[in-house]
Design a protein that fits this description.
This protein has one domain (about 5-250): NAD(P)-binding Rossmann-like Domain (Rossmann fold, 3-Layer(aba) Sandwich), CATH 3.40.50.720. The protein is globular, with a radius of gyration of 18 Å. The chain is about 45% helix and about 15% strand. Helix 1 (about 15-25) packs across helix 8 and helix 3 (about 65-75) runs parallel beside helix 4 (about 100-120). The relative contact order is 0.14. Strands 3-2-1-4-5-6-7 form a seven-stranded parallel β-sheet, with helices on both faces. The protein is of the alpha/beta class. It binds NADP nicotinamide-adenine-dinucleotide phosphate (NAP). NADP nicotinamide-adenine-dinucleotide phosphate binds near residues 62, 182 and 186. NADP nicotinamide-adenine-dinucleotide phosphate (NAP) binds near residues 12 and 61.
Length: about 250
């Protein structure tokens, strides 16, 4: 039986760095499945690792039929899934009514529904010591005005991951909610919606992608439930638990 890892959002940013970290940490894997919409980007990236076997799945995870393709591929291949990394995500940061309804729906589908469906479909192919790593965000710790729908999707994924952690513990399947703060990725650079000045986003530090991917895989393997890299972001997680959100939102607004 083939042992595989599945990584969504593998065509750019954190997802690509996760692919590199998985290749380094799990050289015994038979195959890594790469999921994102841009087939050419995935193929070009995969070409950098000629000794590694990949399966390229160019899927739009906001579209129902993509999940049918995913399920059918699993059914045909019958792999053992060692690792599922739900990384794909999109953001829009503007006042709620300035973001189109279609974009809001896409955020909900990609950031919240898709990881839930992929976990559901992947679980029958997992066993003890398999792991699920869901990329959440510090934006999920408390509502983030002007990123309202995005932060709500990440709050869903954060709670979903913790619930699943508890449910799967007995089966020995690990679940980690990775909650990063600022990262210099495609999302950050192309999100023209981000406020240009006087934003809380400007004063927060950028995280080291290589370090957080490697640390996350370690923490997943060790059975940790939540990982928030960086002291400032850890502090925010504590503050978001202690301070009523009505007051906190004066500061969390972007
Ligand atoms: N950057 C930050 O500051 C930050 C902070 C906290 C959390 N995060 C989270 O980190 C994760 C990775 O984001 P990133 O920063 O690395 O951004 P990124 O560079 O923009 O990567 C996003 C990835 O998602 C994929 N994607 C977008 N729409 C998709 C769709 N409809 N179907 C399938 N895949 C899709 C993209 O590939 P295609 O375009 O090829 O489909 C790309 O590979 C996200 O979940 C994000 O919310 C980011």
């Amino acid at each position: 039986m083939k042992e595989i890892a599945i990584i969504t959002g593998a065509s750019s940013g954190l997802g690509r760095v996760f692919v590199e970290a998985v290749i380094e940490k799990y050289p015994q894997l038979d195959e890594i499945w790469l999921i994102a919409r841009h087939k050419e980007l995935l193929k070009k990236f995969a070409g950098k690792y000629p000794t590694q076997t990949f399966k390229i799945l160019p899927l739009d995870l906001t579209v129902e039929k993509s999940f049918a393709v995913f399920r059918e591929t699993l059914k045909q291949e019958q792999p053992l899934i060692k690792l599922l990394i739900n990384d794909a995500g999109i953001v829009s940061s503007k006042p709620f009514q300035k973001i189109s309804r279609q974009r809001q729906e896409m955020m909900i589908k990609l950031n919240a529904e898709a990881p839930m469906i992929l976990c559901y479909d992947a679980l029958p192919y997992m066993q003890a010591s398999s792991g699920i790593l869901n990329v959440c965000s510090v934006a999920g710790f408390a509502p983030t005005p002007n990123m309202t729908t995005y932060s709500a999707t990440k709050a869903f994924l954060f709670d979903f991951s913790k619930g699943l952690y508890a449910e799967l513990k007995e089966r020995g399947i690990h679940v980690l909610a990775l909650c990063p703060g600022n990262m210099k990725t495609g999302m950050f650079q192309t999100n023209g919606d981000l406020p240009k000045e006087h934003s809380v986003v400007d004063i927060l530090p950028f995280l080291d992608l290589r370090k957080i991917t490697h640390d996350s895989l370690e923490k997943l393997e060790a059975g940790q439930m939540v990982f928030t890299p960086g002291v400032i972001y850890k502090l925010y997680r504590v503050i978001a638990k202690l301070i009523p959100h009505k007051f906190l939102m004066h500061f969390s607004k972007v």
